[in-house]
């Protein structure tokens, strides 16, 4: 059983409004819609007929008689899959994008698509089986690499051996019998920030994920901008120093080779071994596998070398962002991903460089903030992405 | 007398099609429009009634009887004003954006808005007077600085003393009795490239103007992207070298302080005075005021120092563009403005840096080309910008 698609843009607008603003009476839906009362009533009736919305309980009174509220079908379920470098998150959301269940398992993306997708499908089927009487309407999938969005396939993803050109979307759609959509994980997280995070009221903003690598989600007029090949936001390989460390991409001095999870691990190990950081040397001696978390802990404990590492990372990231702020003039910059947990020392340094280096017109009202969603951003974004597709007219239909 | 506005999105689509594709018969207009034949006929009749289109002569036959062609009203005129640092261009176009007349006068923008706008209005009134029986439908104005697009006013424009917050749009609209629109000159040139230049088939592209300063027009889905404060594309002050020359903005090592017309003039003078360039020293001795044109001539004549100047300029510009290409993943980069006349040596250097520094996915099919429109880009873009506004529904109207 599949979900019906709305037939015209008025139905699309009504569905998205019920999703983003919650249940509404007919009278409330009439406000701010450019439809006559009778046409609105006809569209609402048609949406009920299609099974996309339902009358439910009573809406707040407006002084007259109490009327029933309209809400999105309570049987609709959306599956969210967020494939990371070393784990996969699977969640189930309702039509209003409330996350009803969320599980995470460790699995290495480099084991290849067959292993990882089978694992994700197992988890998915269990979550769905726990919700009898519901309809799985669609699945949104994020992967840690560039994606050809129209084909739903990864394109030369550096940390995903075996995934290049693999039909990820088709695999999910066939296995689950519903529409699927696949995008880069950073784009999906950006959409999660837009739907439920600190970017809720921003239309043009940047979401910078500082994980193992560094990527950027570019949101324009409320929608993810992907560029002509789906590689927009690939800022990890912008050069910050033409004599800098060699990067995995083969060039010198890329942002990612200076900062990000992998670079911090490398620098933390060097600082521990050389004894430049007593804190990190201690942790290493205790058998800890050093990571960005340890650098953050060291900096917080006042270790001068670790503090300098965070500041230097913030400086190079800030320089890249300063250029992007001048170019793109966003209304907001959100920092997320694991390394953003280096926290306020990192944020202070990024802000200082951007506010100093970009022109006042671009930074006058520009907040630079840390994400508050953490792990939820990916699954909420995946739900939002497939929801946007389901709540749109089919290509070629008249609207 | 003012132009009527279309009443719904179908009328908008018909008008824009007649503008961009030229006169069409009713049968031809029916192709590729998602309207029934009878609804299309009604919309066309209404556009004739509104005076926005007219039946004209005979369209090519399709085997049946010959039918009249429909065309945009032949009486419609659009005024194009392109205010530069040291000159103003004024042109008159018809509804299909053919430039019918084009005049240019030297006038320094730093003389202030009263002087410059009076001069532009004088020129405009003469052009309009030469076209009796026509209707001036609107005016598009470009200025060499950042603009608050919603208000139609320059915002802290560095090279336009006296223009900050000046009501440029209102001045033109009141004086000419028609709608006016004001934008940054680089955005307007980008739109000109989109309408009639090398970017005609590109939807997501960058237009880089290398004049006295350096700016970038950002086109997304066929429309100019301005950012939240109208400063998007302000790439002249991206830092390329943190020990570089002091910039007019107060920072160090900005792109503009390294390259662009003003920087080249400074470096050409130094090279002539020190004798490092024999060619430029000769020109200076002849009393020439050195500019980018002389550097280009010197490089073309084989002067090694001038060639090195062009290459170094291409390198720093290429480094900034490499970052923007990674971030924005455009389908095309167009270089225009006076300094782009340094020509193929510059282009070769920019290409070499961008193709080496950006990831293959972003550069695989990325042409980097020189503009072919030169001075026309600004006036055609101004006509296109006001035309897009006139051929849209009024805010709040039902469509």
TrEMBL record, chains A, B:
Listed Gene3D superfamilies: 3.30.420.40, Winged helix-like DNA-binding domain superfamily/Winged helix DNA-binding domain
Source domain of life: Bacteria
A Pfam entry, by short name: ROK
Family: Belongs to the ROK (NagC/XylR) family.
PANTHER family (UniProt xref): GLUCOKINASE (PTHR18964:SF173), ROK (REPRESSOR, ORF, KINASE) FAMILY (PTHR18964)
Name of the featured protein: ROK family transcriptional regulator
Source organism of this protein record: Angustibacter luteus
